Amino acid sequence: MAAEAEVDNNLQGPKRTLRVDHIFKERDHQWHFVKTSNIPKKDRFSRYTLVVRRKINHVDGLPGDTKIEIRSPVLIDIFREILQGTKCNGLHQTPLVFSPEVLLLVLPPLLDRQVLEEAKEEPDQRMIEDIKEVATFVHTHFSDRKPEIESFHRNGEITYDHLWSLFPPGCVVI
Prior knowledge:
The protein is an alpha+beta fold. 39% of the residues lie in helices and 17% in strands.
């Protein structure tokens, strides 16, 4: 009984987990355990509303795919509400991850939500600021393409590259 109590006391210390890497060293041709130097820390992006991730091609150094992470808990709820019933990729991840085009298509309902929130007696300032951040990103990201897209829509034309702009999330295309 005393031995069990002694074991339990040893397990209650502050350091109960040791992280090690099992690496092979060419120098002596043996496997060694080495204490892991990079312990995962708190998410470094958690304080941001949006995180724009661009994959840079390692061959030519040019930007490739762009994804947007929605980090704000308030925005996550709003996006899930707006996109409810759609098969939008990234909707069930935490944080939410979308292509920039989804943000452009969701912007009108977001702005409607902002107007409703501002009309309340006690508006949620965090929500309003987060929606403004999305609007700023969308206007900045699409500033060069938006006039072209709007021109196509006005003239009843579209190119293959802009076909996505005709169909809001949840729209069934046959």
